[in-house]
Amino acid sequence: MPDEVVCGLEIHQQLDTKKLFCSCDSELTEEEGAIILRRLRPTQSELGEVDRAALAEAEKRMRFRYQAPRRVSCLVEADEEPPHDANKGAISAVLTISSLLKAKAVDEIHFMRKIVIDGSNTTGFQRTALVAVDGHIEANGKRISIPTICLEEDAARKVETKGGEVTYKLDRLGIPLVEIATGPDLRSPQEVKEVAQRLGSILRATRKVKRGIGTIREDLNISIPGGARVEIKGVQELRKLPLYVEREIERQRMLLLVRETLKSRGVRPVEGKVVDCTSTFGQTKSKVIQAALGKGSGVFASPLPGFVGVLRSPDGRMRLGAELAQHARSKGVPGIFHTDELPGYGIEQETVDRLREMMGLGAEDAFVLCAETRPRAESVLDAVVQRANGAIDGVPEETRDPLPDGTTSYSRPLPGAARMYPETDVKPITVGPELLERIRRGLPELPESTIRRFVEKYGIHEQVASQLVREGYEEVFEEIASFWGLGAVAARTFLNTFPELEREGIDPYAIPEDSIRRVFRSLHEGRIAKEGLPDLLRIVAKGKSPEEAIRELGVGLIGSEEAVEIIGRIVREREAFVRERGLGSVGPLMGEVMNQLRGKIDGKKASDMLKAAVEKLLARAVSAEGP
Question: Do residues 191 and 101 lie in contact, with contact meaning Cβ atoms separated by under 8 Å?
């Protein structure tokens, strides 16, 4: 990948304390709790401006339902009580992280309100505070700047979206987050991953952050020459960061190609004209349009002069239609039709030609269709036309949501400075020299020191130790190595078995750390053999507990007598082969032995038993032959 990409990274990591502005536990729960209903509206900033991202959310006119479980939410999360003083443990954790990142702490911490009206905050804003500035780390052989380190509250957890209502759960709202922002210093997808891994290892070194899926999220800010800054918000899988960067580079290049094509045709901004085409579809075979007409909706179109071939080109290089569809979906409709995919979806060429004639379109002119009620169709088509006009300029600044396949979808416009204003309900916090000195005296071991200690204490290779720390296994590895003496097995499992399972389409990284500990405890207690670990982990990765997986596989250890009997039977069945090959038969027979005993007995013990059985048969054969 070329060095032309410019990336910045924001890491949001949950801190392992109580909630930021109350004494509720910072845990997730399946309990529903009380129900609160709200609508949120945008407010003006101190300068009298309304943030464009907040305005875009308000236009969706959504209603919000909040589940408020006991113990993990209270009147503070419901916005029925002012916030309490900021949690001291969270302040200490962020100052510790700031010191490890060589950042300068501010003299006084002031919380700000950041307008967010997508429903994820009951207040309509998120509280955030600048804690330190001008930090840096060394990664990939260069210095990466860290301009800001902030402390903020996490958002509510989305449960479902149904019609015009979004349901959130308040268990996650208010959990403290440290936000670490790098400068625009990253120049390749792999460098993004390496910096994220380095920051993650420093965060884990504090032992003050939560672990597991959903406790850390990364935002990517990406641009290429001629493109624009695009924020991909909320990536949860660090391993996929390079893929999101690569796909966004491809997307921006595609949009630049669209821009050049439109400019070469002399395309001008399109007027938002809406044409009622309902009568044309009286006998349509399109099931989508039939369903819409059956509900009393209509079919409406907007012309896009000069846009043929850029909505979806035959070679697949231009895919502006996908961008238009995402903007349509942001208005609450499943999608739209456009001419580069027609005829299709039950819409015949005859219908397309009739629509072209109705709108007076030429060979290079496109159109989009929306099957909805007129008010909603007008809103959708207006958004689509605006996005099409934006393609004439190239890449728009916007926020996008990550999708599982590494692509992204449009979320909202990129927010501006108008969404910030002071928080008047939380007292400022003085950061004095005594506090900073206490933080400095208690700084934890840095990752490079951990690597050296692993090599010295557990006898593993430096490269293995480095990879364990980089991949985030240092804590669980040390527990397994120190408690049960299984460090070598754990390292092989994390660095070899896990990637092998991933290549099979199994996600071992979704296994909770507690389940990993229970797997290795079972190995230590003799309930399974290490040869059975891969098969066991295949099942645990699918959501089963280690105990359920052991029962399902039947991999509990068998006694020595039973193992000797099974191995003896295998040797007797291959007696002719054993007589012919002598002790050379042990290697070939070991495969058959492990097919039957893998996971039920230690491999070394099985090999010793097999050798003894072969020697016994050979001795008996010699004795039978006589002198």
Answer: no
